């Protein structure tokens, strides 16, 4: 009996202990859940939730006429979280109902797999309850808009499990056009305007609370809510003209391919403002393959004969010579201080005027001017370099412009041949943008404009800052010297080294050729690499644009002279700009409003004419064929006659009198880029009637 009682006592005790332990466990669980629950849930959230930065959209870079040169576009990575409970409710009814139609839509959109293949892969991922299934990466915004309307996905993230990770990528709509000027927006390799205006284009990143799901993918805790909302960067409006940029790049590339050149740069500046309308930088990366690899416009190089303008200006401004003064060219070869100065051509001339020496680009002539008038006082020569800002950077709003390399009289490198060689563009290195700015100051009657590339900064479409043209203080020389320099630069194109190039030009050009032997790295001058240059402005009697072209040729190039390599590039650009922007502006007299009783000549669509005449009961004589869509309406007072208006696919029609709607339709059908001024009817067009047109060419239409 005692044994039985002892056993029962032990059983009861064990039972009581088990009950007590269970009570303690339940009590602890209750305490943790109800009393400490908030603490442990926050600790869990801290392990699975975090605040992440939401990158701000970068601002857009526009051309002067409003075309996008560099902008952001959204790109999406698409994942599916197959663990969301609605997909598994009622034995997966939601998934099974939509999977077939979803896969058909995916196959139709992406065209990379069949609908059956999509179904097989998605079903397998669903059955495995994958939390981070990668559906598609780097889809466009257009594709994303279609995707979210597909069966299942249109139910939203929390029912379908579809997760879209948005990223912004930088896009240059015109691809490589002006690439080094507009720039790249890579985090560690920004260049061009993207780098110079990085703080303006960059927005302020936002902050958002997210939670981590399988595979490292994060989703917002509350979609659309931010700790700090991202702030989009500001936009900049550049001075670049897309049409001028395309013309400049095309002309430069054509010559570089033709001459198998190593690298080249061509720039166009607006004379009165200093606006850079185009910069083309091309470097060779393969046979006939050229890309915008470096910004040659801001890299210093020996300028060669284009620098002779500085020597001529110095001698004229200090009243040492006139254009009619005599200088002995020594037959083209001059021994000085143990070295030989040679002209590019063995012309055999001796006595010549200063003007003739400049027109023929005589190295001997310019070296003699420097030695004769500045050898004893080189500081007087350098005073003019300072006025022309040769001893500093141009001030263009591009980072990375090289600083001029100048040997000065107090330098250890200064010697007896330094000054005479500098007089014709050696022993000095400056950036092509400086040469362009210097020549532009002569075109602008001595006023040097700061070159610039940005017109305005915009925020949410509103201009918040405008960059106005800025002239550097003072003038580079006196009016009389400017007049002589105009004569000399025009003389180069009429009587000198560029006379053949501009013999039949419709407009006057003022400029200077340049041919310089340049060093090839450690190889020195042994490879005979020549730099061909032409810098000038046009029309010479009313300058509108200054253009600089500098091309570095391949070793021992047979064709390497400035007039035959860089000159044709200048001329092609100038011809296109003259016919597009200048010719009509200079030649067409202002059009004034006239009374209805005056003689008139309008272009109009035949359908529009018939409608107007019918509704207003206006009689007119129609001699056109039934097939004609456009007519020329002529007359005086009430005497109206409709004549045939021939519209060619390759030449420009007369649009005088057309409504803007008709003119736009006609121009855009021909592939022209239209810029309109005013409102009403067409009274002036920048491309004249009958002129051959090119797809992508820009036309300006003036309305009355």
Describe it for me?
With 704 residues, the protein is of the alpha+beta class. The protein has three domains: 52-238, Penicillin-binding protein 2a (Domain 2), CATH 3.90.1310; 246-586, DD-peptidase/beta-lactamase superfamily (Beta-lactamase); 599-703, no CATH class. α10 runs antiparallel to α18. It is elongated, with a radius of gyration of 37 Å. The model is unreliable at 587-599 (pLDDT under 50).
Keywords, please?
single chain, 704 residues, alpha+beta, Penicillin-binding protein 2a (Domain 2), 3 domains, 7-stranded mixed beta sheet
Mean pLDDT: 83
Roughly what fraction of the amino acids lie in strands?
15-25%
Q: CATH superfamily name of the largest domain?
A: DD-peptidase/beta-lactamase superfamily
Instruction: Label the structural class.
Output: alpha+beta
Low-confidence stretches: 587-599
Please name the CATH topology of the largest domain.
Beta-lactamase
Radius of gyration: 37 Å
What is the share of helical residues? 25-40%
Write the layout of secondary structure elements.
Blueprint: H1 2-35, H2 37-48, E1 49-54, E2 61-62, E3 68-80, H3 93-110, H4 115-127, E4 133-140, H5 141-147, H6 157-160, E5 162-171, H7 179-182, H8 192-196, H9 198-201, E6 206-212, E7 218-220, E8 235-238, H10 242-259, E9 263-270, E10 276-286, E11 289-291, H11 308-317, E12 326-328, E13 333-336, E14 339-342, E15 351-353, H12 354-359, H13 363-374, H14 378-387, E16 405-406, H15 418-423, E17 428-429, H16 432-443, E18 454-459, E19 462-466, H17 479-494, E20 510-518, E21 529-538, E22 545-552, H18 562-587, E23 599-605, H19 606-616, E24 621-622, E25 630-636, E26 639-644, H20 660-669, E27 673-677, E28 682-685, E29 698-703
Parallel strand pairs: 2-8, 24-26, 27-29
Antiparallel strand pairs: 1-6, 2-3, 3-4, 3-5, 6-7, 8-18, 9-10, 9-22, 10-11, 12-15, 13-14, 16-17, 18-19, 20-21, 21-22, 23-25, 25-26, 28-29
């Amino acid at each position: 009996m005692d044994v039985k009682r002892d056993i029962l006592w032990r059983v009861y005790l064990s039972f009581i202990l088990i009950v007590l332990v269970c009570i303690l466990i339940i009590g602890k669980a209750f305490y943790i859940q109800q009393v400490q629950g908030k603490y442990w849930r926050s600790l869990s959230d801290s392990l699975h939730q975090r605040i992440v930065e939401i990158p701000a959209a970068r601002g857009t870079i526009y051309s002067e006429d409003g075309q996008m040169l560099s902008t952001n576009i959204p790109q999406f990575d698409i994942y599916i979280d197959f663990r969301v409970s609605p997909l598994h409710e009622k034995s997966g009814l939601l998934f099974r109902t939509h999977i077939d139609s979803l896969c058909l839509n995916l196959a139709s959109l992406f065209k990379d797999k069949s609908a059956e293949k999509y179904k097989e892969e998605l079903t397998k991922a669903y059955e495995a309850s994958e939390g981070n299934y990668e559906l598609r990466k780097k889809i466009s915004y257009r594709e994303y808009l279609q995707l979210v309307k597909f069966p299942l996905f249109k139910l939203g993230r929390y029912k379908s499990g579809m997760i879209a990770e948005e990223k912004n990528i930088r896009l240059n709509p015109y691809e490589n056009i002006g690439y080094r000027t507009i720039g790249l927006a890579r985090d560690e390799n920004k260049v061009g305007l993207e780098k110079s205006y990085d703080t303006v284009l960059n927005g302020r990143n936002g902050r958002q609370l997210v939670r981590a799901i399988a595979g490292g993918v994060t989703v917002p805790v509350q979609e659309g809510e931010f700790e700090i909302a991202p702030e989009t960067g500001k936009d900049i409006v550049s001075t670049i003209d897309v049409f001028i940029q395309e013309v400049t790049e095309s002309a430069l590339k054509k010559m570089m391919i033709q001459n198998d050149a190593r690298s080249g740069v061509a720039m166009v500046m607006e004379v009165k403002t200093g606006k850079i309308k185009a910069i083309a930088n091309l470097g060779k990366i393969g046979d006939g393959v050229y890309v915008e690899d470096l910004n040659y416009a801001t890299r210093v190089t020996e300028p060669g004969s284009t620098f002779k303008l500085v020597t001529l200006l110095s001698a004229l401004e200090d009243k040492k010579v006139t254009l009619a003064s005599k200088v002995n060219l020594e037959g083209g070869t001059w021994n000085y201080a143990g070295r030989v100065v040679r002209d590019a051509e063995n012309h055999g001339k001796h006595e010549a005027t200063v003007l003739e020496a400049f027109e023929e680009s005589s190295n001997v002539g310019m070296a003699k001017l420097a030695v004769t008038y500045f050898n004893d006082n080189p500081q007087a020569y350098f005073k003019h370099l300072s006025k022309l800002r040769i001893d500093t950077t141009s001030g263009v709003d591009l980072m990375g412009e090289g600083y001029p390399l100048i040997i000065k009289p107090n330098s250890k490198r200064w010697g007896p041949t330094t000054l005479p060689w500098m007089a014709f563009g050696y022993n000095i290195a400056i950036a092509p943008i400086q040469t362009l700015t210097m020549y532009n100051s002569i075109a602008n009657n001595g006023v040097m404009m700061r070159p610039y590339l940005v017109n305005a900064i915009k925020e949410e479409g509103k201009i918040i800052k405008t960059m106005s043209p800025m002239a550097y203080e003072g003038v580079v020389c006196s009016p009389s010297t400017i007049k002589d320099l105009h004569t000399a630069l025009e003389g180069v194109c009429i009587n000198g080294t560029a006379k053949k190039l501009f013999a039949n030009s419709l407009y006057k050009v003022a400029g200077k050729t340049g041919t310089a032997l340049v060093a090839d790295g450690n190889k020195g001058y042994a490879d005979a690499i020549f730099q061909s240059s032409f810098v000038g402005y046009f029309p010479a009697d009313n300058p509108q644009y200054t253009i600089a072209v500098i091309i570095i040729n391949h070793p021992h190039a047979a064709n390497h002279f400035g007039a035959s390599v860089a000159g044709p590039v200048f001329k092609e650009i100038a011809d296109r700009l003259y016919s597009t922007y200048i010719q009509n502006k200079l030649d067409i007299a202002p059009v004034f409003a006239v009374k209805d009783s005056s003689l008139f000549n309008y272009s109009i669509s035949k359908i529009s004419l018939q409608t107007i005449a019918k509704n207003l009961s206006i009689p007119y004589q129609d001699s056109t064929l039934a097939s004609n869509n456009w007519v020329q309406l002529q007359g005086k007072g009430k005497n109206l006659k409709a004549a045939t208006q021939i519209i060619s696919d390759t030449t420009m029609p007369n649009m005088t009198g057309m409504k803007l709607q008709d003119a736009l339709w006609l121009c855009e059908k021909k592939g022209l880029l239209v810029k309109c001024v005013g409102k009403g009817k067409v009274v002036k067009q920048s491309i004249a009637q009958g002129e051959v047109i090119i797809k992508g060419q820009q036309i300006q239409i003036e309305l009355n």
